[in-house]
Amino acid sequence: MKPNTQQLTELTTQVRRDILRMVHAVSSGHPGGSLGCAEFLVTLYQRLMDRKEGFDMDGKDEDLFFLSNGHISPVFYSVLARSGYFPVSELATFRKINTRLQGHPTTHDHLPGVRMASGSLGQGLSVACGAAQAKKLNNDNHLVYVLLGDGELQEGQNWEALMYASAKNVDNIIATVDLNGKQIDGPTDKVLDLGSVRAKFEAFGWDVIELKEGNNIDAIIKGYEEAKAKTGKGKPVCVLLHTEMGNGVDFMMGTHAWHGKAPNDAQLEEAFKQNPETSFGDY
Known about the structure:
It is built from 10 helices and 7 strands. By secondary structure, the protein is α/β, with parallel strands linked by helices. α1 (5-26) packs across α4 and α3 packs parallel to α4 (73-82). The longest helix is centred in the N-terminal third of the chain and has 22 residues, at 5-26. The chain is globular and about 50 Å long.
């Protein structure tokens, strides 16, 4: 049985704790975007995706997910572990020597759940398009999901992939853009203004759904059910997910400062007060 909203909310709180503990332990990592995407990734893996037990790279007869903005690996690793891909205890090895949980996900470490290396930004959509076309060739009716950062859209390869997906009718893909409006150097509209992301995707021939409440689990469920209903109709589908960087930790919200900075001991304690340990338990 799929978890309900209350269960998803509780798991999201635990994932936040995982993120904070991981980056604090090594004084390294990217908590801001990870916290902002916690509700989305928890809901995607626990409620929306059609997943099989276990993991294999072929991914036949199941939905696939690709993380393009790989620096938010803390939330990805936490959700994968909490979804049964590898032991939750392994989260304690994040960014340490000989770990499988590197700062950016890699494939040569064979970590279950990771389908592409994403150290270089801007490549995930291209990979997802290839996987989606492979599913069509295999008569596999499952979907391919990919997550992009809004700052990542400043990378040119995305636009080649956007053009390709619509030109080749790759209509079994749902691309999500994390629209938090922030990147490592500041607000995206100050670093390199993207203009209307919706207008750009629509001009490239995509169907677009805009989710203003990207940190609201019920809104996410409703929005992605709508997105899934649009697949298979000749156009690729995009969800513009408006999130808050650092969501759930008040002093990390409303600023780009926590894009790639770990909390100190006092800050971790304060963040934990806002996100108490749940029944899922700390690792």
